[in-house]
Automatic annotation (TrEMBL):
This is 3-carboxy-cis,cis-muconate cycloisomerase. The lineage of its organism: Bacteria, Pseudomonadati, Acidobacteriota, Terriglobia, Terriglobales. NCBIfam families: protocat_pcaB. Residues 366-445 form the Adenylosuccinate lyase C-terminal domain. SMART domains: ADSL_C. It comes from Tunturiibacter lichenicola. Pfam families: ADSL_C, Lyase_1. One of its GO terms (biological process) is 3,4-dihydroxybenzoate catabolic process. Belongs to the class-II fumarase/aspartase family. GO terms for molecular function: 3-carboxy-cis,cis-muconate cycloisomerase activity. InterPro entries: AdenyloSucc_lyase_C, Fumarate_lyase_fam, Fumarate_lyase_N, L-Aspartase-like, Protocat_PcaB-like.
Length: 451
């Protein structure tokens, strides 16, 4: 079954090597072993079990256990914890037979599985934060470099007034700043210990439940929750929705970038490299491979988030079906989001920007996209509504007769009675119609500097 391998066939494309390892079979069992060791430490410190159990567990490694046997055992057991504990006990029985009965003392399967998932999530969030910091640093440099690099603004995929490439990048950065905050806040709420025993009362430990819990949390360096949360799944659901929001923003970046990379636009290009973006039959192709990852992830993630939300409705003290539905779903959310974020870093850090084409496209279809600028210049003379109607007529004339907007304006007596040639030219200067762009960019950069 190759459960020792951290890599599935599409992991190199949609995940990262680090995250694939965290959520591999090995990665999960490593964290389950860590839970059992920490539990033994806590129980020993509370004088519930004899000293030596934690050392016996510490001697066990993932390579000691048969992961395929554990996976197959789950078919009958309904979860991985039962065959895992059986395998762990078999090893300890062979080497320290007098200690085997104290393994997993007072805990239940969900305690080990949930806490292992929490530990996997904690490590993944740490890696996500590294990539979020990295892409943010790269965006700051590009935003400042391209603060005044003009290109058409586009609404409903049609040209609008000009924006700058730096402003578009600042929009991405602004959103990623919010995601960094969300991820930090979600981590603080959701990365907590799970330990409740059979029905969430720790009855098997008598009055020692709370002190053992504190020691267990300390051993794992996890916050101690107010109480066990076996069937209260808002923590995992919050992690899922937080990842979903991040994946959505990354998808928006992929959408923008791939549209600007179309052959007839080609204002930006993804990084070049040997065999990157090639076609099996068309030698000229330079496909937006990284953008496709961002977009595919944004398509897949909402369904996974929906599964996590649906799985919140669980029965009494142990879920039947909902809990089980979470296991691979949350893993996949972390895998996909991490892979998308890494792909976005590649897009941002090494993209090629064609400033000349951006500028040329401002003049497309006669530069009529600057009609708003002229309309507001006229509005100061004749009022907003009359100016809008007049510019609509002039713009249509320009398009019908294949004139530039400037030529059509100079042919209009009504316009020329109100605006001089100099005023018309000023209104048609795209660099003068950027509004508060500089302020918005400065706000985003300042927020990044504040951290």
């Amino acid at each position: 079954m190759a459960l020792n391998s951290p890599t599935r066939i599409y992991d190199p494309l949609f995940a990262t090597p680090e995250i694939a390892a965290v959520f591999s079979g090995r990665g999960q069992v490593e964290q389950m072993l860590r839970f059992e060791w920490a539990l033994a430490v806590a129980l020993e410190e509370a004088c519930v079990i004899p000293v030596g159990v934690s050392k016996a567990i510490e001697a066990v490694t993932v390579d000691t256990l048969d992961l395929d046997e554990i996976a197959l055992g789950a078919v009958n057991a309904g979860n991985l914890a039962i065959p895992f504990i059986s395998s762990l006990k078999s090893y300890v029985l062979e080497h320290s037979p007098s200690l085997v009965e104290y393994i997993h003392w007072g805990a239940t399967s969900q305690d080990v599985l949930d806490t292992a998932k929490v530990l996997q999530a904690r490590e993944t969030i740490r890696l996500l934060q590294i990539d979020l910091d990295g892409i943010s640093d790269e965006l700051v440099v590009l935003v400042q470099k391209h603060a005044l690099t003009l290109l058409p603004g586009r609404t409903w995929l049609q040209h609008g007034p000009p924006v700058t490439w730096g402003l578009k990048l600042a929009g991405w950065l602004d959103a990623l700043q919010r995601h960094r905050v969300r991820l930090k806040e979600a981590s603080a709420r959701c990365i907590v210990l799970q330990f409740g025993g059979a029905v969430g009362t720790l009855a098997a430990l008598g009055e020692l439940g709370p002190p053992v819990t504190r020691r267990l949390a300390h051993a794992l360096d996890l916050p101690e929750p107010s109480m066990p949360w076996h069937t209260h799944r808002d923590r995992f659901a919050e992690l899922a929705t937080t990842l979903g929001l991040l994946a959505g923003t990354l998808g928006k970046i992929g959408r923008d970038f791939s549209l600007l990379m179309q052959t007839e636009i080609a204002e930006v290009l993804e990084p070049a490299g040997e065999n990157r973006g090639t076609s099996s039959t068309m030698p000229h192709k330079r496909n937006p491979v990284y953008s496709s990852i961002l977009l595919a992830t944004a398509v897949r993630v909402p369904g996974l988030v929906s599964t996590m939300l649906s799985a919140m409705v669980q029965e009494h003290e142990r879920g039947l079906g909902g809990w089980q539905a979470e296991w691979e779903t949350l893993d996949e959310l972390f895998r996909l989001t991490a892979g998308s974020l890494r792909a976005a870093r590649h897009v941002v850090s090494d993209c090629a920007v064609n400033e000349d084409l951006m500028r040329q496209h401002l003049a497309a279809i006669g530069g009529v996209a600057l009609s708003e600028a002229v309309s507001f210049a006229l509005a100061r003379k004749i009022g907003r509504s009359p100016a809008h109607r007049l510019l609509a007529q002039v713009t249509r004339a320009a398009l019908d007769h294949r004139l530039t907007l400037r030529e059509a304006l100079l042919k209009s007596t009504e316009v020329c009675n109100q605006l001089s040639v100099e005023e018309i030219d000023l209104a048609l200067d795209p660099g003068r119609y950027l509004g508060s762009t500089s302020t918005f960019i400065a706000n985003v950069i300042a927020a990044e500097e504040r951290g």
